[in-house]
Design brief:
heterodimer, A: mainly alpha, two-stranded antiparallel sheet, 23 helices, 2 strands, B: about 170 residues, mainly alpha, 6 helices
Chain lengths: ~500, ~170
């Protein structure tokens, strides 16, 4: 039970007054931005990232964790009250959560989502603490070939998860990889694809990509509809779910936590699958599946717990292998790099304060949400009542401030603008931005590992077959791509949303 | 574009999926452009990869993908081109450009209101008076939160003539 001892040590670090305050501030700001319609966790973290630059590394990561959970919670609030999910994982919450809000049970929906998330977060924190050491030692046997193969598997998984055409998802990944190669070549230092411009010489920041593709592009899309969305004027109702509702939710929360914890560990953003999987499972297990979509509390409790557990365990690939499994984690890498921390297996041994403090603060972030944020729900409702014709102006200025604060470079705002136009075009041609983001996130690391792997093998691709672990991942990737192409499986996945 | 229109009118349209056709054509052009941009860089060998290796072959892959989309657009029925609503993007983009152009030269207290007032007109339901009030309130709010409370490196007001800079 070594890890429990470490966890206690981490709680000690996280509980210092400054860190508690930062975690709280992060939670508040994260919710504040995350609750804005159409702004998911990626855009929220991208906007708020610069706030942490001036802090010491541990405090910065603790504040970021707070922002992350605040953003997640803000997203759920928006989808429950407005039926405008900020990101794909909140779509599931909106199904039954918004229905509950229409019946005047918004409070119970918000309450159970916070309670479920807390339970899931608590369990997932222990999972991370328990798995971190063994997985980190696994990382020691990983060479470049294994890393490359693992990331390839992650990308294949992302293709499998993408909605719509598999072929288009693959193109999106390639575009993401291509965008990641902008800037200096890591080995020779030669500049690539920069148009000779100084402001492209360092490449594109992931935060710009997040704000452009997921923030401003979403504003473009929302402006098409005008003021069509309707704000829930009905009462919120009691925030505490009734005893019956709690009993009905207990098992879905635990099942959702289990599903989310497992899926979150997978590279390639398995966490996005968690709420869908949980919703499907609960619907299958329910005595009256017909209640789902009509305000079933299990349909909120399960997916919300799964989402949070997955969000939490997706830290595992990052902290143990140094591979960010999704865009949010890539933003975390960005934050760590600024403080001179290279994510990977060595963090745990070299910076135990930071590592265990971060893990403990994840749990604290969850607790913050439950005891401080939930009672503030009235404030968020007021915020959601601001008409969109003003709200989007606020989103635009937040993005401007966020971008400018990263490097104090006005040209970055123009890059974000270009990415926003690109993101709008993608939606017009039915391409999904999520695989692109993952390609972008992994692109550079894949290039470096491929280069090193081939250098070691003297240019022979056979190294990926001869090394058993690498071969295993390559086969896994091929299997996943094959599965993605099989039409029957794709159809089954889309069925969740029908009826 | 005439090819597309012809395709849309006929009973047997030449291009059955305009969306895929345009997307594919764009990808081919973009990929060709990238390959051209990389022409000065060495690709190296598999054993010692040069800086152009990964981007070049990724671009080739994208171009091939685009070609497949174009071919598919002649074979498979697909969706029509979606309408672009230009009002929102134009005003928002203008506001971003304004912010980028003014944040350093005159500072946030001028850049923010200017860009917010511009962005606001991106909505068809814009109400000028309401927008002005919102803009002023937001400028003050952001200045207090980001500069005073969070200590972000935002230049607030730069007036070289009066040698004001804070």
């Amino acid at each position: 039970m070594d890890f429990l001892q470490n966890l206690v040590h981490g709680v000690g670090v996280a509980l210092s007054p400054v860190n508690v305050l930062l975690c709280f501030a992060g939670c508040m700001l994260g919710t504040l931005i995350g609750v804005l319609p159409g702004i998911g966790p990626i855009a929220t973290i991208a906007i708020l990232l610069p706030l942490t630059f001036g802090l010491d590394p541990t405090a910065a990561l603790i504040m970021l964790a707070g922002i992350y959970y605040g953003a997640q919670y803000g997203g759920s609030t928006a989808s429950i009250l407005l039926n405008i999910p900020g990101e794909s994982s909140a779509v599931v919450t909106a199904l039954d959560g918004h229905e509950m809000a229409r019946q005047g049970r918004a409070g119970a929906a918000l309450g159970i989502s916070a309670i479920g998330s807390f339970v899931a977060g608590t369990i997932a924190t222990v999972v991370i603490a328990a798995l971190a050491s063994p997985l980190a030692s696994l990382a020691l046997v990983f060479g470049p070939a294994e890393y490359f193969a693992l990331m390839l598997t992650g990308l294949a998984f992302a293709v499998l998860l993408a909605r719509g055409s598999v072929f288009k998802a693959i193109i999106m990944i390639l575009i993401g990889i291509l965008l990641s190669t902008i800037g200096p070549d890591l080995t020779t230092g030669q500049l690539r694809l920069t148009f000779g411009a100084v402001w492209l010489a360092d490449g594109i920041e992931i935060a710009l990509l997040g704000m452009g593709l997921f923030g401003i592009a979403e504003v473009f899309r929302s402006l098409e509809h005008g003021e069509a969305r309707q704000v829930r004027q009905t009462r919120i109702g009691s925030l505490l779910p009734s005893r019956e509702e709690l009993r009905a939710s207990a098992r879905p929360i635990l099942r959702g936590t289990l599903l989310g914890s497992i899926l979150g560990i997978l590279p390639g953003n398995g966490a996005v699958l968690a709420p869908y999987a949980s919703y499907t499972l609960e619907k299958k297990l329910a005595r009256q599946p017909g209640r789902f979509g009509r305000g079933a509390i299990e349909g909120v409790a399960g997916p919300e717990s799964a989402n949070n557990a997955g969000a939490q365990t997706s830290f595992i690939p990052l902290l143990t292998l140094g591979i960010p499994p999704n865009a949010v984690m890539a933003l975390m890498v960005g934050a760590m790099t600024i403080h001179g921390i290279v994510p990977g297996p060595q963090i745990m041994t070299k910076m135990p304060d930071l590592f265990w403090g971060l893990i403990a603060s994840m749990w604290m972030g969850n607790l913050m949400l439950l005891i401080i944020n939930l009672p503030l729900v009235g404030l968020w409702v007021k915020l959601l009542n601001v008409p969109y014709r003003l709200m989007f102006v606020g989103i635009v200025i937040f993005c401007c401030i966020g971008v400018y604060s990263i490097n104090s470079e006005p040209a970055d705002i123009l890059i974000m603008a270009a990415l926003a136009v690109f993101g709008y075009a993608l939606s017009k041609f039915n391409f999904e931005p999520a695989p692109l983001t993952l390609g972008f996130v992994l692109g550079r690391m894949m290039e470096e590992n491929l280069r090193q792997a081939l250098m070691i093998s003297r240019g022979s691709f056979l190294t990926f077959v001869e090394r058993p672990i690498a071969a295993f991942f390559i086969v896994l990737a091929i299997v996943m791509l094959a599965v993605g192409i099989l039409p029957s499986i794709r159809r089954g996945r889309d069925e969740v949303f029908v009826d | 574009m005439s090819l597309l229109n012809k395709g849309g009118d006929g009973i047997h349209p030449v291009i059955r999926s305009p969306q895929n056709f345009v997307a594919g054509a764009f990808l081919i052009v973009a990929a060709a452009f990238v390959v051209w941009m990389l022409s000065g860089l060495s690709q190296g060998t598999l054993r010692t990869m040069g800086p152009a290796m990964v981007p070049r072959w990724t671009a080739v892959g994208i171009g091939l993908g685009g070609a497949v989309l174009v071919v598919l657009s002649f074979l498979k029925e697909g969706e029509a081109l979606e309408r672009w609503h230009l009002r929102g993007p134009i005003f928002v983009l203008a506001s971003l450009v304004i912010f980028a152009a003014t944040i350093r030269s005159v500072g946030f207290l001028v850049a923010a209101p200017l860009s917010m007032l511009t962005a606001g007109f991106g909505s068809r339901e814009v109400r000028p008076l309401e927008l002005v009030i919102f803009t002023v309130a937001m400028t003050v709010f952001c200045a207090v939160v980001f500069r005073v409370l969070l200590n972000q490196p935002l230049p607030m007001l730069v007036l070289p003539a009066l040698s004001i800079q804070f």
